[in-house]
Write a structure and sequence with these properties.
Length: 155
């Protein structure tokens, strides 16, 4: 009888300790020492910048990004020459009009309009349309890899 009572008390103590630990919330860190990197929020702030793409003489970095619907992309020209990033296909720029930028002179940046549709949006540098180091992909709420044609058929 004494062993049964001791076992029940030990079980009740362990259960209450587990409930107390779970209700503490863990202090916002996934690391036991509290030095881990916080996880990204699960809610997206509409209109927020979901990715930044730097434009340099060696190309766009990162070339491919993923954002959520209602987010925007920031393009920053870190090159010494102008660039203009537009959606595919070249010359029509109709796949994802949110991605059509103005001419960015050296040092300038541009925030796209909000991307609302879930899809993959291919882009290129309108001023250097044949230069593949400026061809990239913005995945909006998807992991789809299709970029669409850079050049439209019949162009």
């Amino acid at each position: 009888m004494r062993q049964l009572l001791t076992a029940r008390l030990a079980g009740a103590f362990a259960l209450s300790a587990a409930v107390a630990a779970a209700s503490c919330g863990g202090g916002g860190s996934s690391s036991p020492s509290g030095t881990g990197t916080p996880t990204a929020p699960t809610t997206v702030v509409p209109g927020s910048i979901g990715a930044t793409i730097a434009i340099t003489a060696t190309g766009a970095t990162p070339i491919d990004v993923r954002i959520e619907p209602t987010q925007r992309v920031r393009f920053v020209n870190n090159d010494t020459r102008p660039h203009q990033i537009n959606t595919n296909p070249h010359n029509f720029h109709t796949d994802c009009p949110s991605n059509n930028t103005v001419v960015l002179n050296p040092g300038q940046s541009f925030d796209t309009a909000v991307f609302n549709d879930t899809k993959a949006c291919g882009y290129h540098n309108h001023l250097l349309p044949d230069d593949q180091k400026y061809w990239g992909l913005i995945r909006v709420g998807t992991n789809d890899d299709s970029k669409g044609p850079v050049y439209s058929k019949g162009w």
